[in-house]
From TrEMBL:
PANTHER family: OXIDOREDUCTASE WITH IRON-SULFUR SUBUNIT (PTHR44379)
Signal peptide segment: none
Protein's UniProt name: Carbon-monoxide dehydrogenase small subunit
Organism: Klenkia brasiliensis
PROSITE patterns noted in UniProt: 2FE2S_FER_2 (PS51085)
Domain 2Fe-2S ferredoxin-type: 2-78
Keyword terms, alphabetized: 2Fe-2S, Iron, Iron-sulfur, Metal-binding, Oxidoreductase
GO terms for MF: 2 iron, 2 sulfur cluster binding; metal ion binding; oxidoreductase activity
Taxonomy, superkingdom: Bacteria
Transmembrane segments: none
Pathway(s) this gene product operates in, as recorded in its UniProt entry: Alkaloid degradation; nicotine degradation
Keyword Hydrolase: no
Length: 161
């Protein structure tokens, strides 16, 4: 066992983990963060996407020990004060989901996309989320949701500037 210290969704944790424990399993099984899901065993689907020190990562490709000393944000940590994150609200309003299994990872990847490119074109959105697979929607409403959130988030940022 190895001890790690990590902040997850704003709370601090110190836990013993097996050196081989994947971050996604640590989040789900030790911390109960079951909003982050596992959709494949091939590192392909992106359903497990979280932010590690602000960068989007597939948490099934990271060992828990690699997160030692880091800040992790999951889908459960992005709402503030009981208000959905603009990206969560946009997925809801634009019907950017059907079964919802891909949605936590899709939202986390999309937030990271807008951090690097606040006003992406449709092609840039599709390229930005290409590591996240959705078997249900055909992606059209997902792209619309990201466009809505981009508009909202950049106007909020402008208002705050
Ligand atoms: S569960 Fe991580 S990429 Fe599919
Ligand atoms: S909504 Fe079902 S996999 Fe995307």
């Amino acid at each position: 066992m190895t001890q790690i210290s990590v902040r997850v969704d704003g709370a601090s944790y110190a836990d013993d983990v097996e050196p081989r424990t994947l971050l996604v399993h640590y989040l789900r099984e030790q911390l109960g963060k079951v909003g982050t899901v596992v959709g494949c065993d091939t590192s392909n689907c992106g359903a497990c996407t979280v932010h590690l020190d602000g960068e989007s990562v597939k948490s099934c490709t990271v060992l828990a020990v690699q997160a030692d000393g880091s800040e992790v944000t999951t889908i459960e940590g992005i709402a503030e004060g009981g208000e959905l994150h603009p990206m969560q609200r946009a997925f809801h309003e634009k019907h950017g989901l059907q079964c919802g299994y891909c949605t936590p990872g899709m939202i986390m990847a999309s937030i990271d996309l807008l951090k690097n490119n606040p006003n992406p074109s449709e092609a840039e959105i599709r390229e930005g989320i290409e590591g996240n697979l959705c078997r249900c929607t055909g992606y059209v409403n997902i792209v619309r949701a990201v466009q809505q959130a981009a508009g909202e988030m950049s106007s909020t940022a402008g208002a705050q500037a």
